[in-house]
Amino acid sequence: MAESGSTAEQTKAVRGRGGGPTPVPRATVRTGFLVTLVLGGLTAVPALSMDMYLPALPEVTDVLHTSAATAQLTLTACLTGMALGQLVVGPMSDKWGRRRPLMAGLLVYVVATAICAFAPNAALLIAFRLLQGLAGAAGIVIARAVVRDLYDGVAMARFFSTLMLISGVAPIVAPLIGGQVLRITDWRGVFVVLTVIGVGLTALVWKCLPETLEPERRHGGGTVEALRTMRSLLADRVFAGYMIAGGFAFAALFAYISASPFVIQEIYGASPQTFSLLFGLNSVGLIATGQLNGKVLVGRVNLDKVLATGIALIVLAATFLLLVATGTFGAPEDLGLVPIATGLFVLMASMALATPNTNALALMRTPHAAGSASALLGTSSFLIGAVASPLVGVAGEHTAVPMAVVQLACGLAAAVAFMALCRPWQRTATAPAAGETEEVADR
């Protein structure tokens, strides 16, 4: 699956006989199917860690004799850990290379997940779910940094769309796996399965993913240097624009995930099976659009134009959902499920035009600090999403208006960030048919 990238000779480092780095052409790494599989597995860690556990929440509440709100904290702790952990691991990978922080993070993830399986009370479970999230963040942030190490320009955007194929399947498969595990064991078995998955992923990384950041491209210094690097990235107006636009687009997706179970089942009276079918159909739309983006649009259409189209579709879909929710076209019970399901499908599919391209366009500007840049992209998305998610329930479970308002606000915020900060019409456009890195504009 060779992709066109920078024409300059670039290398990766693998262990030689004496333990030192031996230069090998970078294209050798990026053509491997196993490398794609490993990176896809790393990007699926959030969905596996969060969604596999969802069917077990009621049982956790009963077995640990705790409240539903406390049980929900086990999800919040993991999400918080994944958000904050990226800020730590990203700069570490710029300093020490990708493999060492990634292997350390995966090993801690495996240990923390195994301890979760034997947690005797909710407090310990929450604590180790936080540690699980902090360690799991290594896979998320370093996977993006590795892609930046291996690819340039539109080739990088294509590869991000390929990863979306895997990360899009994970939310569909994870709850199904969790539900089947609960048929043969209890909630602790879910963490046992996650531990096994973590062990397998660690083994694959050890065997198949070589070092991709050459020693001469690494950065020295400690916390102060890491903070200085992040500050310089945030001072880059265009990078900040892509980061904010991507974060708000991702927040619209968080709002969908948080509200759709109540909207579809409580307001429109759909069964859990129907909701699962619609959720899976929307994920298929996400995957299909991601492949359209990677295989057809990227390399033929300017990346900024594709991103602008994705954001515009998010705004249009959210506007339509708001009109449906406010009864503009008629009472929800008279309209039925089709209009709201159609709007959610378009919104979900549009994410595949926004998320991979914001990541690619932002990382094109940061070859000198891909780990730190990846950390900022990931953390901003998780934190903005975490803030947006609770807002969808402010008016209760029997109206879809808050969900649509939050999604529309997020879409408009993404559009404003893109137009006001990125200003693609003022910069050298990304080459539409070559793997050239975008010119860095005045900051």
Number of helices: 17
Radius of gyration (Å)? 21 Å
Strand tally is: 2
Shape: globular
What CATH first level of the largest domain would be assigned?
Mainly Alpha
- Could you say how many structural domains there are in total? 2
Which architecture of the largest domain would the CATH scheme give at its second level? Up-down Bundle
CATH third-level topology of the largest domain: Growth Hormone, Chain: A
What would your notes on this structure say?
The chain has helices at residues 26-30, 33-43, 45-51, 57-63, 68-96, 99-117, 122-150, 153-184, 187-208, 223-235, 237-267, 272-297, 303-325, 332-335, 338-364, 370-391, 401-422; strands at residues 11-15, 21-25. The chain is mainly alpha-helical and 443 residues long. It has 2 domains: 30-218, MFS general substrate transporter like domains (Growth Hormone, Chain: A); 221-429, Up-down Bundle (Growth Hormone, Chain: A), CATH 1.20.1250. The chain has a two-stranded antiparallel ribbon with strand order 1-2. Helix 3 (45-51) packs parallel to helix 8 and helix 11 packs antiparallel against helix 17 (401-422). The model is unreliable at 1-25 and 429-443 (pLDDT under 50).
Summarize the structure.
By secondary structure, this protein is mainly α. It is built from 17 helices and two strands.
Layout of helices and strands:
Blueprint: E1 11-15, E2 21-25, H1 26-30, H2 33-43, H3 45-51, H4 57-63, H5 68-96, H6 99-117, H7 122-150, H8 153-184, H9 187-208, H10 223-235, H11 237-267, H12 272-297, H13 303-325, H14 332-335, H15 338-364, H16 370-391, H17 401-422
Antiparallel strand pairs: 1-2
